[in-house]
Amino acid sequence: MTELELYYNKFNEEKRLDSRHGQIEFITSMKYLHKYLAQLEMQMPKSEIKILDVGAATGRYSVPLADEGYDVTAVELVKHNLARLKAKGSTVKAYQGNAMKLKRFEDNTFDVVLVFGPMYHLHEKEEKLKALSEAKRVAKPGGKILVAYIMNEYSVITYAIKERHIKEGVENGMLDENFHCTKKANELYSFVRTEDIAALNEEVGLTRLEIIAADGAANYIRPYLNALDEDEFQYFIQYHLATCERADLLGASGHLVDILEKDKEVPYEEECV
């Protein structure tokens, strides 16, 4: 059993997303996902819109989307998570698989591809490029690809500085000279900066539609969020949604969601003009 499997056999991802800071991430991601699904619904019935959830975990996104009537397929690496997803009895077609090898699926199959977990755990640039390239391959021309990342500054501030590991991190090579987390910082999680994400997109050849802070400041202020009453918490959600596209705040967010589009195929006649 891999270290990742051992970790997720113990870690409750659903509990994280049900927490107040997790709710911010879920609400924000679903809001933007529904924005693009609504555009597709103007072109075809909801039941014909094909969504692939890569790294679906226990189905926090795929199951609600299937319940809404979309045609949802899920791929999950960890058997424990996959079993919990299947146990929910939804219409999601769920398979074990690897984000870097989606060979089960033909090219140009899905209208929307979600990659909400894999980039958290792929350390090497080549691995990230493979996952992004596979998402692009299975997406239809013009298809939307939503990719989630964990941000570098969140790790530095909350762990290295707040928990007083900064000296250890620098002296032991967990942080490089620019205070970018290295693989030594965490064997399971990979932390990136906005320029890292942009470089991946350019190399794979995907067009960014927008990029959003999935949770903004929520992870930094967990105790304060938990202390809010329900009305106050709703105002925080409104604040976050009003600011989550601000470029000056993106890099400090705990998580980002990059919303990409696969180029539409150009008809042969147009290419020849």
Describe the protein in words.
It is a single chain. With about 270 residues, this protein is an alpha/beta fold. It has one domain (about 5-150, about 190-260): Rossmann fold. About 45% of the residues lie in helices and about 20% in strands. It is built from 13 helices and eight strands. Strands 1, 2, 3, 4, 5, 6, 7 and 8 form an eight-stranded mixed beta sheet that branches. Helix 6 packs across helix 9. The longest helix has 22 residues, at about 20-40. It is globular. The relative contact order is 0.14. Residues about 265-273 have low confidence and may be disordered.
Kindly report the name of the CATH homologous superfamily.
Vaccinia Virus protein VP39
H and E string: HHHEHEHEEHEHHEHEHHHEH
- Which structural class matches the secondary elements? alpha/beta
Compute the number of helices.
13
Shape, per Cα inertia axes = globular
Q: How many domains, as an integer? A: 1
Uncertain spans: 267-273
CATH topology grouping:
Rossmann fold
| Spatial gap, N to C terminus | 56 Å
| Main sheet summary | 8 strands, mixed
Question: How many DSSP E strands?
Answer: 8
Radius of gyration: 19 Å
Architecture in CATH? 3-Layer(aba) Sandwich
Main CATH class: Alpha Beta
Task: Please give a handful of descriptors for the protein shown.
8 strands, disordered C terminus, Rossmann fold, eight-stranded mixed beta sheet, 273 residues, alpha/beta, 13 helices
Spell out the blueprint of helices and strands.
Layout lengths: L2 H8 L2 H6 L1 H22 L8 E5 L7 H6 L3 E6 L2 H8 L6 E4 L13 E6 L9 H14 E13 H10 L4 H6 L19 E2 L1 H11 L2 E7 L8 H6 L2 H14 L3 H4 L4 E7 L6 H5 L1
Parallel strand pairs: 1-2, 1-4, 2-3, 4-5, 5-6
Antiparallel strand pairs: 5-8, 7-8
Helix pairs in contact: 6-9
